Structures are given as structure tokens and as C-alpha cells.
Amino acid sequence: MSSIEGAQAHQSKLYYEFSHLYDRVFTRVFYPRIAQVIRSLNIEPGARVLEVGVGTGLSLDAYPTHCQVTGVDLAPDMLEQAQEKIVRNGWRHLDVMEMDALNLKFADSSFDYVMAFHVVSVVPDVRRMMAEMLRVTRPGGTLVIINHFRSRNRLLAALDSLIEPITRRLGWHTLSLEDVTGNVPLEITRTYKTAKRSLFTIVIGKNRKS
Ligand SMILES: C[S@@+](CC[C@H](N)C(=O)[O-])C[C@H]1O[C@@H](n2cnc3c(N)ncnc32)[C@H](O)[C@@H]1O
Fold this sequence. Notes:
Radius of gyration: 16 Å
Number of domains: 1
Largest sheet: 7 strands, mixed
Bound molecules: S-adenosylmethionine
CATH superfamily: Vaccinia Virus protein VP39
């Protein structure tokens, strides 16, 4: 479990108990989309990037070596695998550390890009996570979220509600895009899916804090 006092990764112990299986199960599902999204950003040389809830570092391979990436996560077992990837590949542009997304230990405006892939629905307080992500992004910096959001289609939304008791037990809940991005200084510049029937939406926005 996390050694950070008071921090709560999620209601289930899923990531602690199954961290060793995570890549085997999710690489095929998550990595191609993440890689496509990161490539599409054309991250500029020298950019400072934060990935919140970096987990086992499934995304790390996709970042260009000319930017500096910090990954944070609450689950040490997941981070151990991310660290192992960094060492194995000799990646000097990446580092990871244990930290609560709801209480980021970075100064205001420290990053040009802040990413959250499949994380917003597992934290206990998404509004606080968003506030923290925006705080540490510089004005005009970019926020990128990949997640499943509650569908606007009534039938699909009803399906989400039907399976919600199961997903809650597994440690995540289904939020609407508005639950996550409403009432924050974020100008959404693009929302899209990488495939028509994909469950996951990519949200890209500019930090408009003053
Ligand atoms: C579904 S996994 C996604 C991991 C990775 N982003 C990916 O796409 O493969 C969710 C991650 O969020 C992390 N997490 C949950 N609550 C957190 C918190 N409060 N602060 C930081 N990380 C958290 C979990 O430990 C887990 O690694």
C-alpha cells in the first residue's frame, strides 16, 4: 500500500494486488491509443511533462526523448515496474515518484503538459485532482485526459449505471465529461475517439488560469 499518509488510491486493492499482471492485461488495450495521442501532441524539445497516475509506466515508451517526463502514482508496486522499465531502457528523460494526485508536491506552473490516462475515475476526489493538475500546469499549458466517460446516449448511459456497482467494487466509477472538466479554467480544444466505437475519449485542453 502507499506510504503516503491519508492518501487513498482507490476503494479496491486492485492495483496493489495485480500490478504484476497489469501490463499483460492492459498493454494491448491501452498502449496503442496512448502512443497515438502522445505522438499527435508533437511535444516540443525541452518541454516539461507530468503524467499523473503513471502506474506501471505503460506509456513511457511513447514519449519523445527530447522532453523531460515525471510520472507520479500512489501505488509503489506499480511504480516499481515503471522504474524497472526506466532502468532497463536507460531512459534518462524519465523519472517516477510516489505521490498523491490530490496533493501534488510541485510548485505552481511547473509543467508544460500534464497527462492523466485512465485515472480520473479511480481517484476519490476528481475535482481536487483537476485543481491540482491545473495548478501545476503553466498558463496556456496543455492538459490531456484519456478516460471512459458516461455516454450522452441514454441507452448507453443506462448500461453504465447498470454495471456501476461492479466497477465500483473494482475501484472505479463512471463520470461524465462535465463532472471532470466543468467549472475549471480549462479550455477544451479537442475531444475525440481513436476509433468510432471506442469506449475511451481523449480530451485535450489549454490551461486558462489567470
Ligand atoms: C487504471 S490505472 C492507469 C495507469 C496508467 N495511467 C495507464 O494508463 O496504464 C490507474 C492508476 O492510478 C493510480 N492512482 C489511483 N489513485 C491515485 C492517486 N490518488 N494519486 C496518484 N495515483 C493514483 C493507481 O495506483 C493506478 O496506477
